[in-house]
Design brief:
Layout (H helix, E strand, L loop, with lengths): L1 H30 L1
Length: 32
């Protein structure tokens, strides 16, 4: 149960980071 919760949190963090990276790449594309 505890391990599952940790795994869910990790997934959310990874998704969040992925989203930020995506936004940064888009901003760079706009700046070009």
């Amino acid at each position: 149960m505890i391990a599952e919760t940790k795994n869910e949190q990790t997934k959310e963090k990874l998704y969040f980071l992925d989203h930020i990276m995506d936004q940064m790449i888009r901003m760079e594309e706009i700046m070009k």
